[in-house]
Design brief:
This protein has about 200 residues and is an alpha/beta fold. It is about 25% helix and about 25% strand.
Length: about 200
């Protein structure tokens, strides 16, 4: 929703406060959500990571990411100021299935989402894709190519995740700020295309 200056509340200096846009960063356990938020946030990101313990054995699926020692138990939070008029707030969802109940609260007020995937464990992102498709919420898919390894092609990922042809899919390393930025730009373009497909072409 766009506001003109008269609609927006005033900030502390009397100028119109910036429009806030909420974006979710979602996906399975260990796909890079915390990394993405930390890479692009202009502030020190809020993290709610805890160490994995023996209590999670048999409960949490760590196949393919056995070296991972922590997990997000609530959310990650970051901020990007696009301009004096626009601020993007990033909310990284918890990836473990036992915390997915929180997604229903985090999605409120969200404009769109970035779903992250790991080609070594594409099945870990099925839940996120289904979640946003069932709510009709626009999203893009970012395939995190760990250490530059690109084990699948974009068409293969699209088929494996059963994505609609209009959903953008990008591949790259989330440790690179440029790739995380490109994912967010792709989401903005996708949102614009959803709203006005004729003008965006």
């Amino acid at each position: 929703m766009a506001y003109d200056d008269s609609d927006r509340p005033e900030g502390a200096d009397g100028a119109p406060a910036p429009t806030a846009v909420k974006v979710l960063i979602a996906g399975g356990f260990g796909v890079g959500k915390t990394t993405m938020v930390g890479t692009v946030s202009e502030i020190a990101p809020l993290r709610t990571e805890e160490y994995l313990t023996v209590a999670g054995v048999g409960v949490d699926d760590v196949e393919g990411v056995a070296e991972k020692g922590t997990t997000t138990v609530a959310m990650d939070f970051g901020r990007i100021t696009i301009s004096p008029e626009l601020v993007v707030y990033l909310f990284g969802t918890p990836g473990q299935e036992r915390f997915w109940f929180m997604w229903d609260d985090l999605v409120h007020g969200c404009l769109g989402a970035v779903v992250l995937a790991d080609t070594r464990r594409l099945q870990s992102s099925f839940g996120a894709v289904d979640f946003f498709e069932s709510r009709g919420m626009p999203f893009v898919v970012g395939v995190n190519c760990f250490d530059g390894r690109q084990e699948r092609t974009v068409p293969e990922v699209r088929v494996a995740l059963d994505l609609d042809p209009g959903v953008p899919v990008l591949m790259g390393d989330l440790r690179q700020r440029s790739f995380s930025r490109d994912l967010l730009l792709a989401l903005v373009e996708h949102l614009m295309a959803e709203r006005d497909p004729v003008r965006v072409r």
